[in-house]
Design goal:
Order of helices and strands: EHEEHEH
Shape: globular
CATH topology: Histidine-containing Protein, Chain: A
Number of domains: 1
CATH superfamily: HPr-like
Number of strands: 4
Strand content: 25-35%
Strand order of the largest sheet: 1-4-2-3
Length: 84
C-alpha cells in the first residue's frame, strides 16, 4: 500500500472535464485508489467522488493506492495534479 501527500499545482480548480479524464485513467489500474482531503475520503476512480473533493490549487490531497500496480496509479494521480 502506498500513501502519498500530493501538493496540487493545477493553476486553479480541477474542472469536471479534467476530473472525468483522471477517473478514466485511474480505472485502467488494478489497484484500489482512494483520495483524501481533510476528513473526506473518496474512490479515485469515481468522477463524482473526485468532484466532491473540490480540488483546488495549493491544497494537499492524499492518494492511497493498494494493489499490484499501486505505484503507477499513485504516480498517475500525482502527474495529473501537476498539469498547468
Amino acid at each position: 500500500m502506498i500513501e502519498k501527500n500530493v501538493q496540487i499545482a493545477l493553476g486553479g480548480v480541477l474542472m469536471t472535464r479534467e476530473a472525468a479524464k483522471l477517473a478514466h485513467e485511474l480505472k485502467g489500474y488494478a489497484a484500489r485508489v482512494l483520495l483524501r482531503r481533510g476528513e473526506m475520503t473518496v474512490n479515485g476512480k469515481s468522477l463524482m467522488g473526485i468532484v466532491s473533493l473540490g480540488i483546488r490549487e495549493g491544497q494537499t490531497v492524499t492518494v492511497i493506492a493498494d494493489g499490484p500496480d499501486e505505484a503507477e496509479a499513485a504516480a498517475c494521480f500525482e502527474r495529473a495534479m501537476q498539469r498547468n
